[in-house]
User: Fold this.
Amino acid sequence: MPANSRKPVSVSYWFQSSKIRGHGPLLQKSRVQAMNKLSREDLLSLEQYAEQRNDFRARVMEHKKNRRVAVGPNLTLYFEDRLTIQYQIQEMLRIERIFEADAIQEELDTYSPLISGGSSLRCTTMLEFTDVDLRRQQLAKLVGLEHKVWASVAEWDKVYAISNEDLERSTEEKTSAVHFMRFEFSDEMKDALRSGAALSFGCDHENYLQQVEVPAETREALMVDLQ
Assistant:
């Protein structure tokens, strides 16, 4: 990540200390994902967003409720789509007072690759600890966790996340508190989900063995992305 600092958008959600400009797309673009890409025409102007922000934010917060998957007590997957990413971009433009065309396009190019679509579910993944000292200790114990997070459809083999395609976020000493992940599903898996198969997420790291089957409302919300 580049050295320039970014102001936080949401203390409880968006990667408060993450700085991702300058490293190109966050995740590999698929053909369908490219079709889902946001453009300047999709965004509100700073004035329009100021007028509509409260209503828009309330709509997004409600939308996010069924897009959050807690895998155990400390690992949370926040699945992104066009609406959540538009909100992120609008907030960045508002906070940094960005109105130049090139700078707006930079935000679009940075965040659009996080949009789920086609056969891909994409998420911001956060390791969350309220105690600073405990957080430091646990991040040291969870090195490599980003390669152990998986999705599972019924009896099909686990699909392990493809993580941090823009740059490596872990070191030999610790993992990052924030990762960007995508899960790729086969057509057979998607057909099984449409037929009602269970969808689960989990982690196989030796120091964080967790799994959870998502509730019906979350499963249905994520299925919309896999059309």
User: Anything to note?
Assistant: The first helix runs from residue 31 to 35. The chain has one domain: 31-225. The CA atoms of residues 71 and 106 lie 32 Å apart. Residues 31-225 form one domain.
